[in-house]
Amino acid sequence: MKKQHSRRAIRILKRAASHAVLIVACLFALFPIYFMIVASFSTFPLGAISASILVPRPSQVTLTSYHAILLDQNPSFVAMLTNSLIFAGSAALIGLGLAAFTGFALSKFNFPGRRTFVYFILLISLFPSFVMILPFYLMFAKLGLIDTYIGLIIPYSAGAVVFSGILVKNYMDSIPDDIEEAALVDGLGRTEAFFRVLIPLCLPVLGLAAFLAFVGPYTDYAFAHVFIDTSNLWTLALGLYSINSPEGQGVQNYGLVCAFALVMSLPIVAFYMAFQRWIIGGLTMGAVRG
Amino acid sequence: MTGIRLEHLTKRFKNQVAVEDVSADIRNGEFVVILGASGSGKTTILRMIAGLEVQTSGHVYIGDMLVDDYEPRDRNIAMVFQTYALYPHLSVRKNIGFGLKVRHVERSEIDRRVTAVAELLGISETLDRRPSELSGGQRQRVALGRAIVRDPEAFLLDEPLSNLDAKIRSSARIELKRLHSQLGQTFVFVTHDQTEAMTLGDRLAVMNHGRLLQYDTPERVLSHPTNRFVASFVGSPEMDFLEGSVEPTGGSYTFISGPIQIPVRGVGRPGPVTIGLRPWDITVHQAAGAGSVPARVAGVERLGSSDQVFLEVGPPGAPGPGGLPAPPLTLRALVRSYDFEVGNMVSIGFDADRALYFTADGNRIESMSAPTRVG
Q: H-type helices in A187-235, by residue range?
C-alpha cells in the first residue's frame, strides 16, 4: 500500500514539475504578444515605458496608432500589404508547384545521381539565404530585374523549392509504392497517378510547405531591402522598418510599431487557420494493413 | 477472360537474377498458384505480368496479345496487393469505383457495379467509410472488390491472405475459391503458404531461386515432385529423407540405410540414393514386429486431428568433433492422436510403394518408384 502511495506521489510530482516548466515557457512565448497588443492600443513616448502600461485603464485605450498606420502612411498600408501578398503568394505557389514535382521525382523515380542530388539540395539549404543576395543582385542587375516583381519572386520561389522539395520527398517516401502502382493498374499513367493519388495524399505536407514558403518571403527584410528601391513596390517588412525608425534613430513610437506588426501578422494567422487541418495531417494512416 | 503465356521470362536486378527463364501457360479461367519461399521470384513474375516490372528478356502474352511494351493500364488486368494498397483518402465506394472512373465509365453505371460488387463481397455497409476505419478482413475484400469491379482479363493476387488472422484466413480461402468459380476468370495467386497453394490452385508453379521447378496439379506436385526441393517444400508435415544406398538382394534391389531396409519396387540400380517418404507413409506400432525397425519416440506434437511424432532410429552415432555423439537419425511420422508418449519404444514400418528416390543432386529417379504408384 505504502509503496503504491509513494509511487503515486512521485507521478503527481513529475506531472506538476513538467507543467510548471511548460507554463513558464508559455509565459515567455506569450508575453511579447500580450505586450504588443496592449502597446498597440496606447500611445506613449520613448522612455515612458513602465509596468503600469501592462494593465491599461479603459480610459487610456486609443486607436490612434491604428489610425496612423492604416490611413496616414505613404505608401499606404494596403499598397504594401498587396505587394507582400503578391510576393509571398507567388513564391508559395510557384515554389510549392516545383517542390511537389521535385519531391515526386526524388522519391518515386530511380535515376542515376539521385542520392547525390538530394545531398546537393541539402547542402544548399545549409547556407543562410543572405549569402545569395550579392550574387543574385549582380545577376538580376544585368538582367534588368532589380526593382521588379519578378526580380524578387524568383529568389523567394527558389528558396521554397530547396526547402519544400526535401520536405515533400521525405513525406512521399512514407507513402507505399503499392498505392501508386495500384493506381497504374487501375488505369492511370504516372503523371495522372501523381495528380490524382499522390498529390491528394500529400496535402498535409503541401499545406505545411505552402505555409513555410509563404511566411519566409512575407517577413523577409534582407532581400526586399536590396532588391526594391521604388516605394510603390515596398513590402510590409520595409514599411515596418520605415515607421520604426524614420531617420534611422531607433524606435520613436512603440504604439505605432506594435500596431503595424499586429496587423501585419494577421494574414499569417489567417493562413495558418485555413491550412491547420492539412498541416496537422495523417492521411496515409490505414492505407495499408492495420 | 483470357489465358496468360510466359515465354522464357528472365529478370535481373543489377547482378542478381530474380527470375530465370520461366515459361508457363496459364489457361483461360484457371486458378494458378505460384508457390515459393520469399526471394524465390514469385512476386517478380506477377509484377512482370502486370507490367509494373519490365523483364530483362522473354515475353508475356495476355490472351493472344504480346504485351511486352504495354503500360500496366493498357493490359487490363487487376491486381490485389499484399498490403491491399487502398487509396486512404477515398471512401470504400470511391476506392472500388476508381478504376471505372478513370476509364470514364458513366456515373450511374459505376454506382450500379460498385453496389453489386459490394453485395457480392458482403461489404455493402462499409461503402461510405474510409479504409482506415475497416478491419483487415474488410480491407482485403475492398481490394478484391476494386479488382472485380473492372471485369479485367485476369486477376493477379500477391499474397492477399497473408495479413489476415489465421481464423479469417481459412474462410477467406473458401470465399476466394467460390469467387473464382463464380467469376470463371483467370486467377494468378502468389503465396508462400502451401496450404493456400494446395487448397486454391488448379495448378501450382513451385519456384525456388528464380527458377520454375514444377508446374502441375497439386496432387501431382505432392505425389510426383520433380526434385527434392519440391518434395520437401510441398506437403505438411515435411517429407522425411533417408540417405542410403540401393543394393542387390537376391533377384531384386533393396534400399539400405542403417537398420532400415526398404525394397525397391521400381527398376533398381545399385548406388547411393536418398529416399523420401511422407510422414503418413510411415507406420508406428507399440510392439516390435517381424521385419520392423525399433525406434524411440523423442517428441510429440499434438496437431489436433493427429499427432506428429519424432522418432529416433538406431543408436547415437560416433562422437563428432565436439566429443558429443552425433544425433541419431530422426524421422517424422503422422499417427492417431494420443497413441504415443515421449520415451515410448516402438517399431516402425515403411510403405515401400510410396517411396520416392532422389539422386545426390536432388533430382528424382522416377524409374525406381513403384510403377503403379498413385497419390
A: 190-193, 199-219, 222-227
Q: ipTM for the complex?
A: 0.84
Same domain, A194 and A156: yes
Element containing residue A264 per DSSP (H, E): helix A254-279
Determine the 3-state secondary structure of B188 from DSSP: strand
Q: Which domains does chain B have, with CATH numbers?
A: 4-227 (3.40.50.300), 240-368 (2.40.50.140)
Strand boundaries in B224-315, DSSP class E: 240-249, 252-257, 260-263, 271-277, 282-285, 293-302, 306-313
Asked if A288 has any chain B CB less than 8 Å from its own CB, the reply is yes
Contacts of A101 (CB under 8 A, 6+ apart): none
Cβ-contact B102, A192 below 8 angstroms: yes
Q: What is the pLDDT of residues A260-285, one digit of tens each?
A: 999 999 999 988 888 777 666 544 43
Domain presence at residue A285: no
Claim to verify: residue A203 and residue A234 sit in the same structural domain: yes
DSSP string, A98-151: HHHHHHHHHHH---TTHHHHHHHHHHHHHS-GGGGHHHHHHHHHHHT-TTSHHH
- On the question of pLDDT at B361 being above 70, the answer is yes
Query: Does the pLDDT value for residue B54 go beyond 80?
Result: yes
* A193 reaches B (C-beta below 8 A): no
For residue B149, is pLDDT > 90? Answer: yes
* Structural domain harbouring A261: 74-279
Under 8 Å between Cβ of B6 and B67: no
CA diameter of chain A: 81
Closest CA in chain B for residue A288: B83
Same domain, A81 and A137: yes
Residue B67 corresponds to which amino acid? Answer: V
A256 and A273 part of one domain: yes
Pick the closest to residue A228 from A238, A241, A214, A242 (CA basis): A238
The pLDDT score that the predictor gives to residue B101 is 94
Q: What is the pLDDT of residues A198-227, one digit of tens each?
A: 999 888 888 888 888 899 999 999 899 899
pTM confidence score: 0.81
A35 and A162 housed in the same domain: no
Residues A113, A249, single domain; the answer is yes
CB pair distance less than 8 Å for B52 and A184 = yes
Contact state of B163 with A289 under an 8 Å Cβ cutoff: yes
Q: Which of A20, A42, A67 is the last residue of a domain?
A: A67
Q: Are both A87 and A63 inside the same structural domain?
A: no
Are the C-beta atoms of B317 and B323 separated by less than 8 Å? no
Contact check, Cβ <8 Å, A188/B132: no
Q: Are residues A179 and A95 in the same domain?
A: yes
Burial class (CB in 10 A: 0-12, 13-18, 19+), B99: buried
> What mean pLDDT value characterizes chain B?
90
Cα–Cα nearest to A159, from A117, A231, A84, A218:
A218
Whether residue A47 has pLDDT greater than 80: no
Q: Using the beta-carbon criterion (under 8 Å), do B102 and A188 form an inter-chain contact?
A: yes
The strand pairing partners of B319, in sequence order, are B325
CB–CB of B143/B176 below 8 Å?
no
Question: Could you give the angle at the alpha carbon of B228 between the alpha carbons of B224 and B231, nearest 5°?
Answer: 50
What does the pLDDT look like over B196-254, one tens digit per residue? 999 999 999 999 999 999 999 999 999 999 999 999 999 888 999 999 999 998 888 99
